[in-house]
Design goal:
Strand content: 15-25%
CATH topology of the largest domain: Rossmann fold
CATH class of the largest domain: Alpha Beta
Largest sheet: 5 strands, parallel
Oligomer: single chain
Number of strands: 11
Organism: Vulcanisaeta distributa (strain DSM 14429 / JCM 11212 / NBRC 100878 / IC-017)
Protein name: ATPase associated with various cellular activities AAA_5
CATH superfamily of the largest domain: P-loop containing nucleotide triphosphate hydrolases
Shape: globular
Structural class: alpha/beta
Mean pLDDT: 81
Helix content: 40-55%
InterPro entries: AAA+_ATPase (IPR003593), P-loop_NTPase (IPR027417)
Number of domains: 3
């Protein structure tokens, strides 16, 4: 349908003008544009000077212009994306997943360069992704699970990261709707998820990337058959979870064990991240806190060491500070785990 219908649709959007600034509610346009084009729509609005703000139920496009001008810009952008096609016919192919070969190649080069002992886990992950399986990485703190998730996020075209520790079913649905197009769904801290938050995941992982959501009386259907989910979890006892949720979820995920890196690998990781040689005393500190030092904490310590040395701090002072960082973190994590 043509420009007349575009104008009618845009006129139906909620708009508010205040002191020359126009705010437009645009999330409903995902039904018209489709997931891929909705992503492009938001990107184009930013290029035209809009800023995008999100709440749980709404997405606002805000521009420092009168609403008459904002309306004209939005109509032009929508028409350019529709390309003369009718509503609901916008090209879903605009939502293009990253080629699996590019993802797996990057995983190998990025992760194994930093932590070689992850070779078997990464190899298993690559095979499962190529086979179309969803996976869960199981390992203790500091084993490299988040490093793997970060590598996928870096290379994927449209990754969506969700920290399951504070996620809700409605929140996950809103994130997916807002993203519009997802090729890799990255679920961190799956072991801390609340049972009720798993409902949309069961749909996505069981129906070839299809998700049907009803919001405010309107049904939204998303189809992402290329979707791959990669979750990360610390070791946990699934028996303490509701079998109604967890048994079906774990049935959809292939478990891959991620080993703890050795002392040598942690030091090598610190040197690779900073491109600098670590002082000899670092080995003693790493050995003392082995099993409690995450890769993220090791990276923080390494960057601190290099910067402190550049500023002329003595090695004794630097060592004392790094030990304090590790000790404080270790005590905090211990307190949290027993609280």
């Amino acid at each position: 349908m043509g420009a007349l219908n575009t104008q009618s649709l845009i006129d139906g959007l909620y708009m508010r003008e205040d002191n020359g600034e126009c705010t437009v509610s645009v999330r409903v346009l995902i039904d018209v544009l489709g997931p891929g084009n909705y992503n492009r729509f938001r990107t184009l609005l930013v290029r035209y000077g809009f800023r995008i703000e999100r709440s749980r139920s709404y997405t606002w496009a805000i521009i420092n212009r009168p609403c008459a001008e904002a309306r004209r810009i939005i109509i032009d952008v929508v028409n350019s994306l529709i390309g003369g096609k009718g509503w609901g016919e916008a090209e879903a192919t605009k939502c293009e997943p990253k080629a699996i070969g590019e993802v797996t190649s990057y995983l190998s080069s990025r992760v194994l360069k930093l932590v070689p002992s992850l070779g078997e886990a990464v190899d298993d992950l690559i095979i499962n992704l190529e086979a179309g399986n969803h996976v869960v990485l199981l390992g203790g703190p500091g084993s490299g699970k988040t490093l793997i998730l970060d590598a996928i996020a870096e290379v994927a075209n449209n990754p969506l990261y969700v920290n399951m520790a504070d996620a809700s079913a409605a929140g996950i649905e809103d994130l997916i709707i807002e993203a519009g197009c997802v090729d890799y769904l990255l679920l961190d801290e799956l072991d801390k998820a609340r049972n009720i938050a798993l409902s949309p995941l069961l749909q996505l992982l069981d129906h070839g990337g299809r998700l049907r959501i009803t919001k405010h009386g309107k049904a939204v259907s998303l189809e992402m058959p290329w979707l791959r989910a990669v979750a990360a979890a610390n070791p946990f006892n699934p028996r303490v979870r509701s079998a109604n949720w967890w048994a079906p979820l774990m049935d959809r995920l292939v478990p891959i064990e991620v080993p703890q890196p050795s002392v040598d690998e942690l030091i090598g990781f610190m040197e690779s991240i900073t491109n600098a040689r670590m002082p000899g005393w670092v080995r003693q500190v790493v050995e003392e806190y082995m099993g409690r030092v995450t890769l993220r904490k090791a990276e923080q310590a390494a960057k601190y060491i290099v910067k402190a040395m550049e500023r002329g701090k003595s090695e004794e002072t630097i060592k004392a500070k790094v030990e304090k960082i590790m000790r404080s973190y270790s005590e905090l994590v211990g307190d949290l785990s027993t609280s």
